[in-house]
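Please produce the structure of this protein holding 2-acetamido-2-deoxy-beta-D-glucopyranose.
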Amino acid sequence: MDLRRLALVVVTVAVTVVGHGKNLSALRAHDIRRHGRLLSTIGVDLPLGGNGHPSETGLYFAKIGLGNPSKDYYVQVDTGSDILWVNCAGCDKCPTKSDLGLGLTLYDPKKSSTSSLVYCDQDFCTSTYDGPLPGCKPNLQCQYNVVYGDGSSTAGYFVKDNMKLEQVTGNLQSRSTNGTVVFGCGARQSGELGSSSEALDGILGFGQANSSIISQLAASGKVKKSFAHCLDNIEGGGIFAIGEVVSPKVKRTPMVQNQAHYNIVMKDIEVGGDLLRLPSDIFDSGDQKGTIVDSGTTLAYLPSSIYEPLMTKILSQQPALNLHTVEDQFTCFQFAGSVDSGFPVVKFHFEDSLVLTVFPHEYTFQIREDIWCFGWQNSGVQSKDGKDMILLGDLVLSNKLVIYDIENQNIGWTEYNCSSSVKVKDESSGAVYSVGAHDIGSASSLRIGGILTLLSIIIALLHSSIA
Ligand SMILES: *[C@@H]1O[C@H](CO)[C@@H](O)[C@H](O)[C@H]1NC(C)=O
Ligand SMILES: *[C@@H]1O[C@H](CO)[C@@H](O)[C@H](O)[C@H]1NC(C)=O
Ligand SMILES: *[C@@H]1O[C@H](CO)[C@@H](O)[C@H](O)[C@H]1NC(C)=O
Ligand SMILES: *[C@@H]1O[C@H](CO)[C@@H](O)[C@H](O)[C@H]1NC(C)=O
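Below is the modeled complex.
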């Protein structure tokens, strides 16, 4: 399940005939009028739940409201893909139960008074598919198909409807407001997305493509093209704010331009105070696209040329350690005492001197009282040009405030207490308000189910071991 959220293939052009056509120019004109009214941007608070422990939830999700009347949906927050989709009524293989203890809801466009279909000649469709669709005729629906890193996929058609947003209106206060967005109505799920282990209602892609919710809300003038997450791996949940976070201030590193994901440039890796000696071209030769930052991936994936020296250096501090492999996937060991005093801190250095510090209690996880496993994974994943890719997930992103400033094309972070709050600017009033942490859906069943969840997750990881 782990790499699932990194979309590898987003676009499959396909259109189907729809029974009843609507006159769309009227709808479009309405939208343009609507957009014209929204001049100043607001801050939005997206309530979060879940945690990054591979032996517990292993993912973070948000609660969103869609339709009129609005219904709640739990969706994984994923900075590695570009559309929002939810399981839809009549779907083939959509999960109806979740081992996460959350109640799942199928979205039914027929039961929402504000929903409308999206056709292949509409701007959203042509822009998502980079031009006119071959064979597009009036009344052909705009379809989507996303294939994720583990080979699981979702397919369906786009709909337009209201999304309920929690507009930040005061310190730790919000009020519901509406935005119109286009999202996928899931009709066919395959692989892990069709199973009930860790099932959610869908995935909320926070990528920078025009099709993502952040881009749509920004295009309509509702929000700034900027957001931040603070994933709390200690208490669970955390903070997810859309808009300009003005406090705490964070140091930034530029995004690599024209990439499908959020990529940044790694320069060095430091383990316990020593720089790893790595081949000089490892981070940036030729077409190498840098390091991918992806909240939808649980662990951190490194090519062998980095993974091996990193593990050797980490283990050199514990020469007597007895390693064993669990489920062909994890390197595990018996250890009593504090991992933070037994193992070194790992620091990734990025362009413009931004450092990502990962403590031993973050890069290890406990599966039994005295058995620990390393979260680092040897990726073997190759990008299109054959270079290994570096993929940093929740393992290293948790317990930090991470800011994605799409407008200024940079990413920044700072160590942060994700159970506290951040300050977001509301441009419509000029005010600065606190946005606090949430931990939704943290039912006790989550914790009690820990061991069972672990088993299903390990099986899921096995199935998805990245080619
Ligand atoms: C849609 O409606 C507009 C205005 O109401 C009209 O001018 C246009 O011809 C209609 N288009 C179609 C395809 O019916
Ligand atoms: C994405 O949106 C921007 C701003 O609205 C626009 O300039 C650009 O052409 C769009 N890109 C595509 C591929 O449609
Ligand atoms: C959202 O929009 C619907 C339909 O336009 C409306 O009935 C509802 O009151 C709106 N909700 C909020 C919170 O603005
Ligand atoms: C984090 O913030 C919360 C809320 O302000 C506070 O209760 C908690 O003690 C803080 N944790 C740490 C480690 O400072």
